[in-house]
Amino acid sequence: MYIALSESPKEQERERREGSKLPSNPEEVEDLRGGDSAANPLIAFTFEELKIITANFRQDRVLGGGGFGNVYKGFIPEDLREGLQIQPLPLPVAVKVHDGDNSYQGHREWLAEVIFLGQLSHPNLVKLIGYCCQDDHRVLIYEYMPRGSVENNLFS
Fold this sequence. Notes:
The protein is α+β, with helices and mostly antiparallel strands. It contains six helices and six strands.
Protein backbone atom coordinates (compact mmCIF):
# COMPACT_ATOMS: atom_id res chain seq x y z
CA MET A 1 0.00 0.00 0.00
CA TYR A 2 1.34 3.42 -0.88
CA ILE A 3 0.05 6.68 0.49
CA ALA A 4 0.90 9.87 -1.30
CA LEU A 5 1.85 12.79 0.84
CA SER A 6 1.58 15.92 -1.26
CA GLU A 7 3.06 19.22 -0.29
CA SER A 8 2.91 22.61 -1.83
CA PRO A 9 6.10 23.90 -3.46
CA LYS A 10 6.37 26.36 -0.57
CA GLU A 11 6.30 23.53 2.01
CA GLN A 12 8.83 21.52 0.00
CA GLU A 13 11.21 24.48 -0.12
CA ARG A 14 10.84 25.06 3.63
CA GLU A 15 11.68 21.41 4.32
CA ARG A 16 14.71 21.60 2.05
CA ARG A 17 15.99 24.64 3.93
CA GLU A 18 15.26 23.31 7.41
CA GLY A 19 16.36 19.75 6.70
CA SER A 20 14.64 16.53 7.59
CA LYS A 21 12.42 16.71 10.66
CA LEU A 22 11.16 13.17 10.53
CA PRO A 23 10.93 11.29 13.83
CA SER A 24 13.91 9.34 15.01
CA ASN A 25 12.41 7.71 18.11
CA PRO A 26 9.04 6.37 19.33
CA GLU A 27 8.21 9.51 21.32
CA GLU A 28 8.46 11.65 18.19
CA VAL A 29 6.35 9.16 16.22
CA GLU A 30 3.62 9.33 18.88
CA ASP A 31 3.77 13.13 18.82
CA LEU A 32 3.09 13.04 15.07
CA ARG A 33 0.22 10.59 15.56
CA GLY A 34 -1.33 13.23 17.79
CA GLY A 35 -4.54 12.60 19.68
CA ASP A 36 -5.13 9.36 17.79
CA SER A 37 -2.55 7.47 19.82
CA ALA A 38 -4.92 7.18 22.80
CA ALA A 39 -7.85 5.87 20.74
CA ASN A 40 -5.74 3.43 18.70
CA PRO A 41 -2.59 2.69 20.67
CA LEU A 42 0.37 1.18 18.88
CA ILE A 43 3.20 -0.61 20.64
CA ALA A 44 6.71 0.72 20.13
CA PHE A 45 8.89 -2.39 19.94
CA THR A 46 12.65 -2.40 20.31
CA PHE A 47 14.76 -4.07 17.63
CA GLU A 48 15.94 -6.59 20.24
CA GLU A 49 12.30 -7.53 20.92
CA LEU A 50 11.76 -8.03 17.18
CA LYS A 51 14.71 -10.40 17.07
CA ILE A 52 12.96 -12.48 19.75
CA ILE A 53 9.60 -12.29 17.96
CA THR A 54 11.06 -13.43 14.59
CA ALA A 55 13.66 -15.89 15.95
CA ASN A 56 16.43 -13.52 14.82
CA PHE A 57 14.77 -12.92 11.42
CA ARG A 58 15.22 -16.53 10.35
CA GLN A 59 14.88 -17.12 6.62
CA ASP A 60 12.38 -19.94 7.12
CA ARG A 61 10.05 -17.36 8.69
CA VAL A 62 9.91 -15.16 5.56
CA LEU A 63 6.30 -14.83 4.37
CA GLY A 64 7.10 -12.64 1.38
CA GLY A 65 8.96 -9.62 0.18
CA GLY A 66 8.89 -6.72 -2.17
CA GLY A 67 10.30 -3.30 -2.80
CA PHE A 68 9.96 -2.43 0.87
CA GLY A 69 11.84 -5.46 2.23
CA ASN A 70 10.88 -8.82 3.76
CA VAL A 71 7.87 -9.81 5.85
CA TYR A 72 8.51 -12.38 8.59
CA LYS A 73 6.11 -14.49 10.61
CA GLY A 74 6.70 -14.16 14.31
CA PHE A 75 5.14 -14.71 17.71
CA ILE A 76 4.90 -12.21 20.55
CA PRO A 77 5.67 -14.39 23.59
CA GLU A 78 4.08 -13.97 27.01
CA ASP A 79 7.39 -13.00 28.61
CA LEU A 80 8.49 -10.42 26.01
CA ARG A 81 7.84 -7.40 28.21
CA GLU A 82 6.15 -6.89 31.54
CA GLY A 83 2.80 -5.15 31.26
CA LEU A 84 2.35 -5.74 27.52
CA GLN A 85 -1.37 -5.27 26.83
CA ILE A 86 -1.94 -7.78 24.02
CA GLN A 87 -4.24 -10.79 24.16
CA PRO A 88 -3.99 -13.66 23.53
CA LEU A 89 -0.33 -14.43 23.99
CA PRO A 90 1.61 -15.87 22.30
CA LEU A 91 0.24 -13.79 19.43
CA PRO A 92 1.19 -14.60 15.81
CA VAL A 93 2.26 -11.49 13.89
CA ALA A 94 3.64 -10.42 10.52
CA VAL A 95 6.76 -8.26 10.83
CA LYS A 96 7.39 -5.98 7.83
CA VAL A 97 11.02 -4.85 7.77
CA HIS A 98 11.79 -1.72 5.78
CA ASP A 99 14.56 -2.48 3.31
CA GLY A 100 17.05 -0.05 4.80
CA ASP A 101 16.33 2.76 2.35
CA ASN A 102 16.81 5.45 4.93
CA SER A 103 16.20 8.19 2.43
CA TYR A 104 13.85 10.98 3.32
CA GLN A 105 11.20 9.56 0.95
CA GLY A 106 11.54 6.01 2.30
CA HIS A 107 11.16 7.25 5.86
CA ARG A 108 8.11 9.33 4.90
CA GLU A 109 6.41 6.29 3.33
CA TRP A 110 7.04 4.25 6.49
CA LEU A 111 5.72 7.07 8.67
CA ALA A 112 2.62 7.49 6.48
CA GLU A 113 1.82 3.82 7.04
CA VAL A 114 2.23 4.18 10.81
CA ILE A 115 0.00 7.25 10.97
CA PHE A 116 -2.63 6.09 8.47
CA LEU A 117 -2.95 2.45 9.49
CA GLY A 118 -2.65 3.38 13.15
CA GLN A 119 -5.92 5.30 12.77
CA LEU A 120 -7.91 2.54 11.07
CA SER A 121 -9.87 -0.20 12.73
CA HIS A 122 -12.12 -2.37 10.57
CA PRO A 123 -12.86 -6.11 10.56
CA ASN A 124 -11.82 -6.38 6.89
CA LEU A 125 -8.45 -4.66 7.34
CA VAL A 126 -5.30 -6.11 8.80
CA LYS A 127 -4.56 -4.45 12.12
CA LEU A 128 -1.31 -2.58 12.72
CA ILE A 129 -0.16 -3.65 16.18
CA GLY A 130 3.04 -1.65 16.47
CA TYR A 131 6.27 -0.43 14.99
CA CYS A 132 9.99 -0.08 15.59
CA CYS A 133 11.75 3.24 15.09
CA GLN A 134 15.17 2.59 16.58
CA ASP A 135 18.47 3.70 15.08
CA ASP A 136 18.14 3.01 11.33
CA HIS A 137 15.49 0.30 11.77
CA ARG A 138 11.99 1.00 10.47
CA VAL A 139 9.65 -1.94 11.04
CA LEU A 140 5.87 -2.44 11.13
CA ILE A 141 4.16 -5.22 13.11
CA TYR A 142 0.75 -6.42 11.89
CA GLU A 143 -1.68 -9.06 13.06
CA TYR A 144 -0.95 -12.30 11.23
CA MET A 145 -3.53 -13.35 8.64
CA PRO A 146 -3.32 -17.17 8.43
CA ARG A 147 -5.24 -17.35 5.15
CA GLY A 148 -2.90 -14.93 3.36
CA SER A 149 -3.75 -11.82 1.43
CA VAL A 150 -6.90 -11.06 -0.55
CA GLU A 151 -4.73 -10.90 -3.67
CA ASN A 152 -3.39 -14.43 -3.07
CA ASN A 153 -6.87 -15.80 -2.47
CA LEU A 154 -8.37 -14.14 -5.55
CA PHE A 155 -5.61 -14.83 -8.06
CA SER A 156 -4.07 -18.14 -7.03
